Amino acid sequence: GFAMVTPLIYIPATTRTPADMSTASGGAISSITLGAYVPRDVTLSASPYTATGLPTGLACSTAGVISGTPSAPGTFAVTLKVTSTRTVDGVSETLTGVAKFTWTIT
User: Fold this and answer.
1) CA 56, CA 64: separation in Å to the nearest integer?
2) What is the pLDDT of residue 10?
3) Are strands 91-105 and 21-23 parallel, antiparallel or unpaired?
């Protein structure tokens, strides 16, 4: 047997995992590049990052770059995911790290 291992997603220059965020609407945000800690035997997928629930006007590339201009105020429940794979004894498995936080646009 082997232990299940999942990647840990984070936003550099903040905390190890995403925390609640607040941004004013109408101005472009500085791009945020996501990162992921993965064990040595785990490989990030070709397009590892996805995001759902981002504030209106923001998008996340598959390379993990969040950018854009928030265009509507509100509170948004954001879910970030990073997907990786590893092969053990010839069996490939998909591993997904998930981070959830609230992003408020004022």
Assistant:
1) 17
2) 61
3) parallel
What tokens does 27 get? 């101005």
- Find all residues with CB under 8 Å of 17, minimum gap 6, and list them: 8, 9, 10, 11, 99
Q: Using CA atoms, how far apart are residues 97 and 7, in angstroms rounded to an integer?
A: 5
Which backbone phi and psi does 96 adopt, to 5 degrees? -130, 125
CA distance 14 to 8: 14
Torsion angle defined by CA atoms of residues 52, 57, 61 and 66, in that order, rounded to the nearest 10 degrees? -90
Task: Give the pLDDT means over successive 10-residue stretches in the chain (106 positions).
Answer: 55 53 77 81 84 94 91 91 85 85 88
